# Entry
Amino acid sequence: MVSVVIPVLNEGATIRKVIKTIRKTSLPHEIIVVDDNSTDNTIAEALKESVRIVTSSQRGKGLSMREGLLASKYDTILYLDGDITTYPPNIVDLLAAPILEGRADFVKSCFTRQAGRVTQLVAKPLLSILFPELSHLDQPLSGMIAAKKELLLQVGFEKDYGVDIGLLIDVHKLGARIEEVNIGRVQNAMQSLEQLGKMSKQVSRTILQKASAEGLQSLATIGEINIISRQLENSVLESVDQIDKMVLLEMDGVVLDGRYLAAVSQQLGLTEELLPIVSSASPAHEKLQSIAAQFKGVSMPELLEIADDIPLVKGITQVISELKKKGYKIGLVSELFTCVASHIKNKLGIDFVLSNELLLQDGIITGELEIAPFFLDGEQYGKEHLFAHIHDRYQLPAANIIYVSASRRDHPCLQKAGIGYFFQSEDLTDLLELIPGLKNQSSWQGLPNPSRPATLVLPGLFAAALGFLVYSSWSWARKNPPVTAGC
# Structure
């Protein structure tokens, strides 16, 4: 008999399909959904399948797994993710069989697809040095596992992304028989840069803490990790230098600390006229043309003076300087005020502007707006179409473009770019941590973009892991001084 535990967080769209797949097994079983305090309809959807619900006492996958274990009734525990809809119909039988047949105490799943970036760049190199007995496993970070309940009750559960690797190392230390089972092809969503960075840090920290507890550090192991991390980082930085690359910055919220349209309409007393236009359901390009008409007769110097009164986002000049040093072309994106965007471009040393053309005659706005062809795909308007224009003009694919915006309306651009950053910090220098080839402290959120060069942010984390290992080695040596032979 098997207890299937599914830790979930906002997986209302997939949870029912996962439950239905589990029920295809002929083994006696129970299904326990442990909710990590979801804010969507996950619980309502799970209840439609009449499964047991446990609400976790605190957010964190590890705690949810532990509480699912405590709630289970049977001696064989199986953990599955609630967001994967491509499980084979015999998933429960595949994972549970080695335990039920007495061949194994702990079962890890592996898949036919290539292992993830954190697995290949962080977990496996560290395991090969510190826990070589586990280095043969294809996917040591897999969260689809089965184990004897009595075994799991003897180990701790990390509260974060380190939980899966932590369990593997702990049961290995207890002498458990470990088997890896191929469950076929599994398709899941790519991680965002923020998630990859967080996962890398937490996985490496867990491995190193487990190694520290065993006293496995030595100058030899530190030297090996040091060489690997340095060579990896150097190779990445060399690759970045050789790539043609570009950063596109939205004018509002990324360069100017505010929205220019709001500021200029307030200064010119046009707020009441513009409000119904902005809030209307008209097509975007028609809305922009109606807004432009309201500025008929305003002089260009008036617009530039208002722009100069809006403070710049903190760190913008430093970011532009660092980007240029690393060979990035920099573009400024604005849909309406071409003259203002060009003025800011010249002040900050940005390379070019992508904007619709607000027409002028003798320095006075005519009220007409010429829609830029690079925002159009046929008659369909959208800023995301600019990537095709850049590809044609600069022979630069979207995969080599970084798009930075502070507006959720730019989600299509953030997704289409090689790396899309949704800026929510107060200091733009946070960007330097996540742009390949640059470093700084970060408080960013990266949107997930499949098959993008997100692996370029990992070597720094590997180096950080080295620092932790050095410290742990020194700390362990202090607590365990060498024994001096008697004379």
Notes: The chain is about 45% helix and 15% strand. The longest strand covers residues 2-8. The chain has a mean pLDDT of 84.
